[in-house]
Amino acid sequence: MGYRPRLRALVLLVHRYVGLSMSVFLIVAGATGSMIAFYPQVDRFINPELLAVEPPRLGAPLLDPFTVRERLLDQLPQGQSVDGVVLYRTPGLPFNYWIDDREVFVDPFTGTIRGSRHFGDLSEGRVNWVTFLYELHFTLGLGEVGRVLFGIVAVLWTLDCFVGAYLTFPPPRRHPTRSPRSSWLVRWVPAWLLRTGKLFAVVFTWHRASGLWLWAMFLIFAWSAVALNLRDELYQPVMNGVFGEHQTAHERLSTRNSDHSTPRLTLHDAHDRGKLAARHLAQKKAFSIVSERSLYYDAQRGIYVYNIESSLDVASRLAETYIYLHGYDGRLLGFDAPTGAHAGTSITSWLIGLHFGALRGGGLAYRWFVFVFGVLVVLLSITGVWIWWRKRQLRLRSIHRTLRATASDERA
After folding, report:
1. How far apart are CA 151 and CA 235, in angstroms?
2. Confidence band for 181, pLDDT divided at 50, 70 and 90
3. In this structure, are strands 113-117 and 102-106 parallel, antiparallel, or unpaired?
4. Measuring CA to CA, how many Å separate 261 from each of 193, 208, 216, 287, 297?
5. pTM for the whole structure
6. Which entry of 121, 234, 247, 286 is 20 to 30 Å from 259 by CA?
7. For helices 215-229 and 143-168, angle between their N-to-C axes, nearest 10 degrees
8. Where are the alpha helices (H) located in 198-342, listed in sequence order?
9. What letters, b where the CB count within 10 A reaches 16 and e where it falls short, cover 43-66?
10. What is the reported pLDDT for 74?
C-alpha cells in the first residue's frame, strides 16, 4: 500500500471516530438551533403575559424611556438599583432590563413590571422553556463544563469539515497510463451526486453530497461556535495570528480604574452627550445611526457606555456600536463598531450574525434557512452513525464467514 492510500485510510479513520464522538452534541445543537432560529416569535407566543404588550386604551402614548426607568426604580426592592436606561422601544414588546442576573420586563405604557425570569432556569416553568433551549444549544445545560465541551466539539467540527471534504476527493489512479484521460474535477463530480437504488447507496451518497453542497455553511457554523464557546481560549488567538491583533476601545478601557462610584454627569446629560458624539462620529466615519439601544454607567471604570444600532452593525438583533464617555465631564473616550475597523473583528461579527440567523436584510428567509440547516445537521449526524453501524455489521459478517470457512477447512 502506497503513501496516499495509507493517508486516506488514516483520514477516514479520524473522520469516522471524530464524527461518532460529535454526533450527540451536533444532534442537540442542530435540533435546538432550528427551534431558536425563531426565538423571539416563539418566546412571545409561549409567554404572552410577559412579552405581548397591548396599550391600556386606544391611542395611549408610550412613556419616555427615562420615565419608565424611574417607575421601575420605585418598584424594586430595597438594595436593588438600575445603572442605566433602555432606550429602544419595539412596538408590541416591553422594555427589557437585566437586574441581578434576572431578566425584567417593564410595560412601556405604564412602567409597571410585567414579570421576570432567570434566563435558562427550567425550574421556573414555561417562562423559561425557550431560554432553556439556548442553554442546551451552547452548554447542554451543564454550565461552564458544557461550554468547554461544546467548544471542543466545535473545534473538532471545524477540522472535520476539511477532513470530510478531503475524503470526497477522487483517489489517484493506480495505473494512469491505462485509464482514460479525464480531469480531476470530472472524476470529483460523482461525489456531488446522489445514487439511487439500494438504501445504503442512497444514504451514503446523500451524506457525502450534502456535506459538499453546504460545505461553506458547515464551516461557518462550526468556526462561529468556536467563537461563541472558546473565544478567549482559542478563537481570538487564532484570529489575531491571522489578521493581526486589534485592541478595541472596550479592551483598552477595561484597565481603567476610577474612584467615581457615582458619576458627576447625570444620566440625562450623558444621554445628550452620547447623541452629540454619535452624530459627530457618524459624520466623521461615514456611517448612519439607525436607533438608540441603551445607556449605562460602568462604576468600575467611571465611564458611560452608549449603545446604538448603526449601519456598521450586521443585524438589528446584534446592535454592537458603542460610544464611551467620561463619567465626570462626558468627553469622548472611545468608539467601537462591529465592522469597518479591523478585518478580524468584521469577520467575527458576520460569523456571529450568520450563526444567530440575524442579518440585516435577511429577515424571515434567512431564519428559515437556519431552521432547515439545523435539521440537516441532525440528519447528517444520524446518517453518519448509521453508515458506521452498517459498515461495522458488514465487517463482522465478513469476519464470521472467514472464521466459519477456516473452521470448515480444518475439519476437512
Report:
1. 10
2. low
3. antiparallel
4. 65, 59, 48, 33, 9
5. 0.89
6. 247
7. 160
8. 199-213, 215-229, 236-243, 249-253, 267-285
9. bbeebeebbebeeeeeeeeebebe
10. 95
Taking the C-alpha atoms of residue 204 and residue 183, their distance in angstroms, rounded to an integer, is 24
d(C-alpha 45, C-alpha 192), whole Å: 40
Residue 141, phi-psi category: left (phi > 0), alpha (psi -120 to 50), beta (remainder)? left
| Span 113-128, average pLDDT | 95
Interval 349-407: pLDDT, tens: 999 999 988 887 777 889 999 999 999 999 999 999 999 999 888 888 888 787 777 76
Give the least confident one: 13-17, 111-115, 174-178, 271-275. Answer: 174-178
The amino acid sitting at 38 is F
Residue 149 corresponds to which cell in the numbers above? Answer: 465541551
The total number of residues shown for the chain amounts to 412
**What's the whole-number mean pLDDT along residues 7-27?**
92
Residue 176 scores a pLDDT above 50: yes
Q: Are 204 and 394 in contact (CB under 8 A)?
A: no
Q: For residue 143, is it left (φ>0), alpha (ψ between -120 and 50) or beta? A: left
So where are the chain's domains? 1-61+124-173+191-245+364-412, 247-341
Three-class DSSP category at 298? strand
Cell 447507496, located at residue: 201
| Surface-to-core class of residue 133, CB atoms within 10 Å of its CB (0-12 exposed, 13-18 middle, 19+ buried) | buried
Residue type, 141: G
